Amino acid sequence: MICFSCRIPSESGTCKKCYEEVNMRKDALRHNIEELKSKVNFLTLFLPMNPAIQITSDVVLVPCSGSSIAFVHAHKFVSRSPVFKAMFENDMDEGQSVINVADVAYDALRTFVIYLYTAEVCLEDQMAFDLFILAEKYQVNHLKAYCEKFLIARVNEENAISNYTFAQQHNAKQLLDSTLTCIADNKEQFVRSEAYVNMKHINPRLVVDILEACFATELLVLP
């Protein structure tokens, strides 16, 4: 008997290598399908029965940091943030609403609003941090998870400490675990770094967490 796919001799209709490759492709397709379902669910949040009713009911978002004085215009019916939705529902003015968004630059706020329309975003490091903070503040969990996955994929020895601090401040559990694993895996280099020496005084909690991570992976104790 030969394998149906690669045509090499096999005891069954599919050899082990082809069988494993098929399973890998199935897992990848299943992951893509779940991602698409998640995006569809996000894009259908809070849409009215007749979107045309509110399409002209605009909202102006004003970034309250940075030097830019540009505003971000949007429509109330596309709000997929429970926080924004509550603001709009409590707004008795039928005209244009103005909302001040604290501690955010124009570029980040504009990208955030575009994501609420499209569920699409092109990330780079600083934008991922900015959008994660906005997503956490305005309860856009789909975007928060997307940013966290991006940051986890880019964790390395150089940014592990700063990412750890960010994760601790913003309740990013998966990012926190990823940074601790990176630090524990590179402990010799880490304990000789200036960042570690400074962090022992600035954030002793980090040292405790690292020690626990080292114990968990049966590594040597840090000095």
From TrEMBL:
* Gene Ontology CC: one annotated term: endomembrane system
* Chief location category: membrane
What name appears for this protein in its UniProt entry?
BTB domain-containing protein
Pathway stated in the Swiss-Prot or TrEMBL entry: Protein modification; protein ubiquitination
Every copy of the BTB domain together lies at 57-125
Can you say where in the cell this protein is located? Endomembrane system
- Membrane topology of the entry: Peripheral membrane protein
What is the originating organism of this protein? Answer: Crotalaria pallida
Q: Name one Pfam family in it.
A: BTB
The record's InterPro entries line, in alphabetical order, gives: BTB/POZ_dom (IPR000210), SKP1/BTB/POZ_sf (IPR011333)
Q: Which domain of life is it from?
A: Eukaryota
